[in-house]
Each structure stands twice: as C-alpha cells, then as structure tokens.
Amino acid sequence: MSKLSARRTTSLTLAATAVLTLTLVTSASANGPTAGEPAQSAAPAPSVSGSPEGAFTRIADFYGSYIDAVYDGDGSSADRLRAFYLSEPLQAELRKWEEGNHADGVLRAQNVPLAWKVTSTGSGTGRTNATVTLTWGSDTTKVFVQADLATRKIVSIRD
C-alpha cells in the first residue's frame, strides 16, 4: 500500500467515525438524556440576586421574608422583620392604618398572597421606588413602596 493510499484510507476512516459519532450524539439528544445524565431544560433555572447595599434589594428582601413569616404564622419573625426593614415613623403609621382597617398594613390585606413580585420604578431625591405586585389566586394588587437610599429603610407603603 502506498503512502497516498494509506492517508486516504485514514482520512475516510476518520470521516466515517465523525459522521457516526455525530449521528449517535444527535440521536441521543433527540431521545432525551440517558441513564445518569441530567435532563436539559430549554428555560433557564430561576435565580435571585441582590446586594445588602441596595435599597431596592432591601425592599425585595423584606417582602419575600415578611410574606414567608406571615404565611408560616410566625408573628414574632414578622415583627422583627418590620423592626429591621421599616423606618420607625412608617411602623407607627402602619399600626394606625391596621387599627382602622383591620388588615395587615404591609400587605394591605387580611390574608397572605400566594406570590409576589417587586419591580423597580426608579430612584430620585434620595429615595428608591418599587411596585410590589401581590398575587391572590387569579387576582393581583399593587403596593407602592419607597425606601431611603441612605438608610436603606422602607419609609412608605401605599396602595
């Protein structure tokens, strides 16, 4: 066998191996994962991020933690969260609102939402603003929240 013939045979063998490998990989991908392989999803995995320095992040952290505490019936944790995240004047305002409305002033409701979403609506004049969307089954309500950029404390909750 000549050198040219040996190289051609090697090239053809490599090409055939590549086609066979590509066919097997494509077939396996189309048929789903094999045993021991994780399933691949088209949607990205959910993620949450934030910073202890950001007033907007503090709003999201507060609502997530507060709703969890109220949902779990953990009133002492809910009270500690209010004390940590809310300014003292807002805490007093919420107590007054709750007495008059017989509802939770943070959630503006008597029950607990099934889901929540916090959306930034911008910052200015030393404050950051957010809209908190609370989901109650098929209904949603919005609460407008403002936090002080310097203290990162929530200073206003309005419906």
Overview of this protein structure:
By secondary structure, the protein is of the alpha+beta class. Helix content is 44%, strand content 22%. Strands 1-2-3-4 form a four-stranded antiparallel sheet. Helix 2 (55-71) runs antiparallel to helix 3 (75-85). The radius of gyration is 28 Å and the shape is globular. Residues 3-30 have low confidence and may be disordered.
Task: Summarize the SSE layout with pairings.
Elements: H1 3-30, H2 55-71, H3 75-85, H4 88-101, E1 115-124, E2 127-136, E3 139-148, E4 154-158
Helix pairs in contact: 2-3
Gist?
This protein is of the alpha+beta class and 159 residues long. The protein has 4 helices and 4 strands; from the N terminus they run ααααββββ. The chain starts with a helix and ends with a strand.
Poorly predicted sequence stretches spanning 5 or more consecutive residues: 3-30
Query: Helical percent range?
Result: 40-55%
> Count of helical segments?
4
Oligomer: single chain
* Order of adjacent strands in the largest pleated sheet: 1-2-3-4
Distance between the termini: 87 Å
Q: Largest sheet, if any?
A: 4 strands, antiparallel
Q: Using the alpha-carbon principal axes, give the shape.
A: globular
Strand content: 15-25%
Q: Provide the gyration radius in Å.
A: 28 Å
**Could you state the order of secondary-structure elements as H and E?**
HHHHEEEE
- Mean pLDDT reading: 83
Question: How many beta strands in the DSSP annotation?
Answer: 4
Structural class by secondary-structure content: alpha+beta
